[in-house]
Design brief:
By secondary structure, the protein is α/β, with parallel strands linked by helices. The chain has one domain: Spore Coat Polysaccharide Biosynthesis Protein SpsA, Chain A. It is 36% helix and 21% strand. It is built from 7 helices and 10 strands. The strands form 2 sheets. Strands 1, 4, 5, 6, 7, 8, 9 and 10 form an 8-stranded mixed sheet that branches. Strands 2-3 form a two-stranded antiparallel ribbon. α2 links the parallel β4 and β5. The protein is globular.
Amino acid sequence: MANVSAILLAAGQSRRMGGLNKLGLTIDAVPMITRMARTLLASRLSEIVVVLGHEAERIRAFLGDLPLTTIVNTHYRDGQMTSVYAGLAQLTRPCDGVMVCLGDLPLLQPADIDSLIEAFESRRYGSVLVPTFAGQRGNPIVLADAHREAILAGNRNLGCKRFIEKNPELVETLEMDNDHTLFDLDTPAKYRELLRRLRETRTDAVDA
């Protein structure tokens, strides 16, 4: 079975959240970054590195004593790709692939993560796996570990998105059966939508 590690990006400034740090927003009384970390830990992932930046110590406190590694990207203001570089450079365990996961995918479930790992290990071609839903590309993606050195040695402006666009022959997609890989929480309106969806899910479960 494929051994996949992950970097969880948690360094952003939440500029579209009206002054709030979205990673600290509570979902079922749990900060979102805690929820994300627990989701990754409950999956088949191996090593997990969380990359902090904005309000690093506050966000680190939300992670408590969870069994993962945290690092601080002091260059987080220069863009998300600096956090990708920092996370990739921090991984220490041998692995077949690296999952690059955003910190604001609150609907993501361990089963979604495991589906991506299984698709990565059984892929027919390529070395990059990208989830899709209804024709839209989502996150997280999985890169073969061989790409780590290529990305780390590359231009600082070479983001994962650009890498994928410039190397389509390396990419295999997995059509998901839900929108969990698309739903990112980056505005107050999306937070309200998330809470509404969760309430409806609980209501449906009770009615059933």
